[in-house]
Amino acid sequence: MPLLDHDPHLPLAALDVADVRSSATGGARFSAHVDDNPPALELLTSVVIVDPHPPVRDGLSLLLPPEGLAVLGGASTGAGGEALIARHEPDIALVAADLPDVDGITLVRRRAS
Domain range for residue 97? Predict the structure, then answer.
């Protein structure tokens, strides 16, 4: 399933989907509906997940409540996570400490500075 490619700081328009779940490589998850008079758009909190284990990324994506959150993607390495964070500038980045190419804490410190 493709990633949802949008500006995470803008609300999503009412879409013709009930729910989009992430794939093993990351993805988007949100809830919406379509009608002639859509409800007031809610600003979603954007999330990225950086973890070397696909089942962990998928599990976290499924455990996060769909109301108000948009999982923008996932990465399995620190380099991929850093690129994903730089691209989307998420509100929340869930980063594992045991990434194969860099310590997750180092990645978070580097992005925070």
Answer: 45-112
